[in-house]
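[job 4417] fold queue: 2 targets
>>> target A
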Amino acid sequence: MIKFQNVLKKYDDVTALQGVNLQVRHGEFISLVGMSGAGKSTLLKLIIGEEHPDDGQVLIDDIDIATVSKTDLPYLRRKIGMVFQDIKLLPKRTAFENVAFAMEVCGHKKEKINGDVPKILDLVGLLHKRNHFPSQMSGGEKQRVAIARALAHRPVLLLADEPTGNLDEVNSDEVLELLLKINSLGTTVILATHASSLVNRIKRRVITIESGKIVREQAQGNYQL
């Protein structure tokens, strides 16, 4: 599904990624771990085409993402959901409206939106909060709405960049369980995090990045920073 081939990425004189070789298969759950500044976010940005490698290739289903035109890039990104530490919900829209907005942007008709959004909110356990505004929800609930929004266009890949970074242990566990549930339904998940306790609970494939290089790969997490 995703293949990094000897990828190099620099920002001026700073090397963000160097010699990265990585393959992600359909349906995997991968934890991408490392300290802040290790290169995790850069790697995710290369997958969605927000950045391009200075050398090497990033392939998605054998398509070199650097060759995708600006016109076609939005269509490719519709296959990819993205969740951030900074949740960025629309404050004046309800949970329902935040998810619906993502579908509106993709051009879905009102009938489909009204049919799909309740199902997506139910999947993340927030159908009962459909009419609540972000200010009326906890941090964990807001992050689950953000995940619901990322799922609105039925992505085959979900990228989660430090999604529990601002959450307490209880809410972090809820978000983690939701990501595992989404993965069990067939969506490939890449979780970028520095929270070793979460990684060790998942017990899935772990990729460790240090100073822009992949230094370790484990079939299951027993990870310590």
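>>> target B
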Amino acid sequence: MTKPTLVVLAAGMGSRYGSLKQMDGVGPNNEAIIDYSIYDAVQAGFGKVVFVIRHSFEQEFKEVFSKEHFGGKIDVEFVFQELDYLPEGFTVPDGRIKPWGTCHAVLMAAPAVNGPFAVINADDFYGRDAYMVLAEYLRKADGTTGNYSMVGYNLRNTLSDYGTVSRGECSVDQAGNLVAIVERTAIERGKDGIVRYKEQSGEHPIDENTTVSMNLFGFTPDFFEKTEELFKKFLSDPSNLSNIKSEFFIPLCVNTLIEEKRVTLKVLTSQAKWFGVTYKEDKPEVMDKISQLIANGTYPSKLW
């Protein structure tokens, strides 16, 4: 049976955070959140990690996150997301400097993935149980097509005290399958205690118990072919080309494929607790939570 692959989206430069937060140490030996993610993935049975990075920090990143760094416990491969990495026949519009988004990043991993795979953000801590339940689902999905999955989290547990966050708001049917996912890009709790998101039409309240996506997805390899087709349609839309900030998000792809009844996506539940570093001010709390997990025996003080 093929061991699932872990695709790590690490091409973001941490614009709000102010540095390469993917490499920022939060553990007692300067371990990054990525280290804990890979450690959990190894425990869950993943056999390979594919890092999606950019050439601008390639050398610095590779010097840290090599196969040797992880003690040889998991295979490591690097792929690149750049603005001009587009399907044949397409070019970057004038004035475009913003990356194309998370689904474009996933597409860059296609040459390095040969079986079921998971996708994570480099700067999010998902918790070991999340990897366990997702890996189990991916192993069962091996050899199938259009059999996708994700681990859902409770919105109230994913907010930052220091600014807005982006989350995928999920609608789930009684069978536990995703009906729709909507990307909300500016969510925060107000001084009145009410959680709201902002968009062009204004501010809107959102239930803090809403199931949200934290970009912890599981896919079968047919996802690449299907989303490349969707990306070409995205690039062919004049409204997307004229908007230099338009992005090709994973939720956009998933929604379209579900609406067209080409795939199903199971929303998995987990006992795992999410936390992450969106802003520099989040870091002390993350470090404290890591310390608690080491103290209770979840992690050794030295991972590798």
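[job 4417] complete. Note on B: Residues 5-151+213-248+272-295 form a domain with the Spore Coat Polysaccharide Biosynthesis Protein SpsA; Chain A fold (CATH 3.90.550.10).
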